[in-house]
UniProtKB/TrEMBL annotation:
Lineage: Eukaryota, Viridiplantae, Streptophyta, Embryophyta, Tracheophyta
Keyword Transmembrane helix applies: yes
A molecular-function term among this protein's GO annotations: copper ion transmembrane transporter activity
Membrane-spanning segments: 52-69, 104-132
Organism name: Handroanthus impetiginosus
Name of the protein this chain belongs to: Copper transport protein
Pfam family, one: Ctr
Location in the cell: Membrane
Similarity annotation: Belongs to the copper transporter (Ctr) (TC 1.A.56) family. SLC31A subfamily.
Gene Ontology CC entries for this record: plasma membrane
Amino acid sequence: MNSGDHMHGMGGPPPSNGTTMMHRRHMMMHMTFFWGKNAEILFDGWPGYDNLGMYILALVVVFLLALTVEGLSHCKFLRGTTAAPAVVGMVQTALYTVRIGLGYLVMLALMSFNVGVFLVAVLGHGIGFFFFGSGAFNKQTAAAAVSGKGSDLPPVNC
């Protein structure tokens, strides 16, 4: 194998296609928790280097993703429906697929090892549970928990 066959990023020369290549700052991939706005979250180059506004936007996106995962985990869209079982099954499958996909996006964002991302993901799940899963806005759920007939936390579904 000659030196031109090396894979890009594996120590060989970068591929050359005759055009001028733009140099950009490559950020270090962290493998431990760190605090700071210079992180790559979900997409290459996002939120960018030294861009506080985009970092805050990234945190808001992760928060909303976690909140949506909790909302979908406790939703009752099909309560009292008279639709055919096949239609109900398709709707359940679609909701499950969206929930799992969003959950994986939150997990991938957490793999940036940024403490801010970690905190907003946990906060999003916590606030989402408060609004959608706790008994704070559902008298039946709250009454069951207080009377001892229900558990304090719903079971974790895998």
